[in-house]
Design brief:
By secondary structure, this protein is an alpha+beta fold. The protein is built from 23 helices and 22 strands. Strand 16 and strand 17 (639-645) form a beta hairpin.
Length: 747
């Protein structure tokens, strides 16, 4: 298997430094000057300490502008000086690797800056004590912020069943306290955010989530603005109530929660029942309606720790199995290279001399006086492998036993032909077997990685309960996330009980999850059916295929197919069978269908092609083969992976320019060691991918290039190429013509 170097057409991306600087500047601008109780919020300094040099400087600039606008630059001079020290440390050194070191370095920066400013301004002892308390609070905030940043950088998630969950709770309290300092007339940003977060937590994690989120957010709101935060003491009780109603419609949840909140405020104290409080609860409830209750799964890990612990031994065992297969395959290659090859040429010469020349009266003259001449003649007769008797070489024209030699070397030739044939068959079988072992190794490695797919037990149970409520029986329902954090839903049923019901089910689950779901191809295996839904990806694919059979045939030998893999990404496949007509059609359809079944079953593209090559080699004694051209799209990242085995070139219109991807590889079923060229391409929206069979002459490529540059309608492009393919082939369509076009578009 040969993997060519990937050809990347990269889209311009915003550098990480731009995100870091922009986020740091906003953090400094919005959080500087906010309060946590009677103390200044430590979040700007904690965030600056956990960013790089660019981010730390951006936090300082944002904070400076915020203090200048508010006119409090003198009051916050120690914090500005501390930000300068933190920024200098980030410029000179990398951030500490441990949270403890981060906390000590940040706390000491705040402490020394407070002491220096106190000496300069001759502050009182109470102010020095206040600076010391601020340094301690900043060190703690930096410790917990470092834990969150480390988890997000490592896995992109925060595990609630670890110390990271505690760190997230502390930072959440500090963040809500900072947001609560922003009081718009009759509204409070922190209170609105607290209400929405409590409802989302209750909907996602039920009663426990509602109570915990309500308590944390109420605590943060009170620390930021006691007057506005006191009414939010009802949030833990409201979260408990919403937890019991988590399976209901979100509009009913909002109505019940808002009615309960109003009654609770009136019951506790009429002083709490103010217009600002009512608006905060109302706007938070409205925000909950429009937010995704399942969005927390993208950032938080709940039950993944138990699952990963359970699958870790199995994953390790699969990796060891893959390693054992690789070791065996390498050992077989090494042993085969060390073993002697079957070369019996000298043995044949010696045996012929003993059997024929041993009793000849001219033996001494031939093998002593004319040794070189006689040996050369024998070697010439050895090289003859045809079924007929070998010709008489000039060196042995005087031999009196030449006919006996001819018959003997003829029998030797037959044996050598058999030996060479058997050796070639053994070598071919060994190559096919090693390719299958390599495919099995790749498959086991891939499966061991897939065991860590992030499943959501809560959402799986919720989906199954909702289906049962609407009368849709199923064996099980699984909700999990792909590597791109896109939700996938699989509903497993016996036979085809839900055929025709998926549009309605998609609508029901989209409403329940507050997501836009799309229906994927159903997968059938014996009596079990897997119905699949997925969250709408970042991009979508538009495609169109056209085909014309050769003029002397009534059926096309080419086959094109599009399907979705396990991650919900489309695969466009084109295969061209050997020749034209019915036989070629059988080959191409079998090839595309095998690839679809392998990929839909979870086998990777290259492993599937290796297995298919071995199957095509052994399925028939006749020489049959087929090309394979695969375009695998990743609609989350906007990328394309091309797999080519003997296929024609592919044209891609990328950012207004047309490029060509081709590979000199053999079709499947032709060589024991199947070759697959792999190319990876990053795409822009509106890029067009054009896959062609070899019925389209390469002479047409310049014209097709102009056609792609001028037009974007896929049906028109495909139809025009099919109609004019015969012109570039000499006026007749001697081969089947198939054209597949695809365009990537924003979702």
């Amino acid at each position: 298997m040969r993997n060519t170097n990937p050809q990347l057409l990269r889209t311009p991306r915003v550098p990480y430094a731009a995100f870091e600087s922009g986020g740091g500047f906003l953090a400094g601008l919005l959080l500087a000057g906010t309060q946590v109780g009677a103390m200044t919020s430590p979040l700007p300094i904690a965030i600056a300490a956990n960013l790089g040099s660019v981010g730390a400087v951006a936090v300082f600039l944002g904070s400076l502008i915020s203090y200048v606008i508010s006119g409090t630059i003198t009051d916050n001079l120690p914090l500005l000086f501390a930000l300068v020290m933190v920024a200098c440390l980030r410029i000179l050194h990398r951030p500490p690797k441990t949270a403890h070191a981060m906390a000590w370095s940040t706390g000491l920066c705040v402490f020394f800056s407070g002491i220096a400013v106190s000496l300069y301004l001759r502050s009182s002892g109470a102010q020095v004590i206040g600076y010391t308390m601020t340094a301690a609070l900043t060190g703690c905030a930096s410790y917990f912020t470092c834990a969150i940043f480390h988890s997000l950088r490592k896995t992109g998630k925060i595990s609630l069943r670890s110390t990271d969950g505690c760190a997230a709770a502390v930072v959440l309290i500090l963040l809500i306290a900072a947001l609560s300092c922003y009081s718009i007339p009759a509204m409070n940003a922190g209170c609105i955010f607290s209400t929405a977060l409590t409802l989302i937590g209750a909907r996602k994690f039920r009663c426990a989530g509602g109570v915990i989120c309500g308590a944390l957010t109420a605590c943060g709101a009170i620390l930021g603005d006691p007057a506005a935060g006191m009414p939010l003491l009802i949030l833990p009780i409201g979260g408990l109530l919403v937890g019991y109603l988590a399976a209901q419609n979100r509009y009913l949840i909002v109505a019940v929660f808002f009615l309960f909140s109003m009654m609770a405020l009136i019951t506790f104290s009429m002083d709490l029942f103010t217009l600002s409080t009512v608006l905060d609860l109302l706007l938070g409830s409205v925000a909950f309606v429009f937010l995704d209750a399942a969005c927390l799964d993208k950032w938080l890990l709940t039950d993944i720790s138990d699952k990963s612990d359970a699958t870790a031994p199995l994953s390790a065992q699969l990796r060891h199995m893959a390693s054992a297969i690789r070791t065996v395959r390498e050992d077989v290659d090494a042993i085969s290279a060390l073993l002697p090859q079957n070369d019996d040429t000298h043995h044949m010469t010696r045996e012929a001399c003993e059997r024929v020349c041993g009793s000849c009266r001219h033996k001494l003259r031939c093998w002593e006086s004319d040794y070189e001449r006689t040996l050369s003649g024998f070697h010439k007769m050895e090289m003859h492998l045809a079924a007929t008797l070998p010709p008489i070489p000039e060196e042995l024209s005087d031999c009196i036993r030449i006919e006996r030699l001819r018959k003997l070397f003829s029998s030797y030739g037959i044996q050598r032909r058999k030996s060479k044939f058997l050796a070639s068959r053994v070598a071919e079988s060994r190559t096919v077997l090693l390719e299958q072992l390599s495919a099995a190794e790749e498959l086991l490695s891939m499966v061991s990685g897939d065991l860590h797919i992030r499943y959501s037990n809560e959402l799986s149970e919720s989906v199954q309960r909702r289906l049962m409520r609407y009368g849709y029986d199923c064996e099980s329902a699984s909700v999990y996330y792909t590597n791109a954090d896109r939700m996938m839903i699989e509903i497993i049923c016996q036979e085809r009980s839900l055929d025709g019901c998926m549009p309605t089910i998609r609508h029901i689950l989209s409403e329940a999850l507050n997501l836009t779901l799309e229906e994927l191809d159903s997968l059938y295996s014996e009596n079990e059916v897997r119905y699949r839904l997925c969250q709408r990806p970042k991009f979508r694919l538009e495609h169109y295929c056209g085909a014309l059979h050769a003029q002397q045939e009534t059926i096309s030998g080419d086959t094109s197919l599009i399907f979705t893999d396990n991650a919900g990404n489309p695969c466009l496949v084109l295969s061209d069978g050997m020749g034209t007509g019915k036989t070629a059609a059988i080959e191409s359809r079998m090839t595309t269908e095998m690839f679809r079944k392998f990929v839909c079953g979870g086998v990777g593209g290259t492993a599937a092609i290796r297995m298919m090559n071995g199957l095509l080699l052994t399925k028939s004694p006749q020489e049959t083969f087929a090309t394979l051209d695969v375009a695998q799209f990743d609609l989350d990242a906007g990328t394309l992976t091309m797999l080519k085995s003997g296929a024609a070139a592919t044209l891609i219109r990328h950012d207004g320019k047309v490029s060509r991807i081709s590979a000199q590889t053999f079709p499947l079923g032709l060589e024991p060691e199947g070759e697959t060229a792999i190319r990876q391409v990053a795409l822009y929206p509106n890029d067009i991918i054009l896959m062609l069979s070899d019925g389209v002459s390469e002479d047409a490529y310049p014209w097709i290039r102009q056609l792609l540059e001028q037009g974007s309608d896929l049906e028109q492009i495909v139809t025009e190429i099919c109609e004019k393919a015969a012109i570039f082939s000499g006026g007749t369509r001697r081969d089947d013509v198939t054209v597949c076009a695809a365009k990537i578009l924003p979702a």
